[in-house]
Amino acid sequence: MGERITITAADGAFDAYVARPQAAKAPAIVVIQEIFGVNKVMRDICDDLAAQGYLAVCPDLFWRIEPGIDITDQSEAEWKKAFELFNAFDVDQGVRDIRATIDQVRKDPACNGKVGAVGYCLGGLLAFLTAARTDADASVSYYGVGIENRVGEAEKLTRPLLMHVAEEDQFVPKAAQAVILQALKHHPQVELHTYPGRDHAFARKGGEHYHEGDAGQANTRTLAFFKKALG
């Protein structure tokens, strides 16, 4: 199954989970974590992407705060810990770590040179910023939190971005969704889908708001998007 590699940044090094496909060379996808660290949900996403033929890499973006975070959404104590990590997290530094991951993965002998990114929750915001600030070939954002405050960055988008927005997202209220839709729905690089009745993290298996049907539809759209953009 998966393995661990070390990513080198300008000011240190951090771990990443890697799932490798059967092919000797393949496109890579950087999987950007939620607020629960590189946990089983993220590792399973990597494993699923590897089964689809991608080199999947999930970097530990909380490494400066506390390396090796691996918690769930199943207890009040874990939620408290997750929000403490979220509040201590430097988003801009996280994007720089993602850029370092993309740069290193692109040079991996198993990568064919194409690198995409997909992120969830906090990672959904980071995926949007990755699309705007890095040379990722394609990015996917699932229910990103806080994008409404950064829509001005869309002017820097030069590569494809797919966005999944939950219409009843408790962390992205209707007013915030309106800002996002107004700014991005007609952007030439953006494909945006909304999901009526769905709450935050509707694609997180085992989560309170998981919806198999809409998660399946979103994931199918994601794979089709990556196939077109990355091959």
Automatic annotation (TrEMBL):
Gene3D superfamilies: alpha/beta hydrolase. Residues 14-229 form the Dienelactone hydrolase domain. PANTHER family: ALPHA_BETA-HYDROLASES SUPERFAMILY PROTEIN, CARBOXYMETHYLENEBUTENOLIDASE-RELATED. Transmembrane segments: none annotated. It comes from Phenylobacterium zucineum (strain HLK1). Pfam families: DLH (PF01738). This is Arboxymethylenebutenolidase. It comes from the Bacteria. The gene is ysgA.
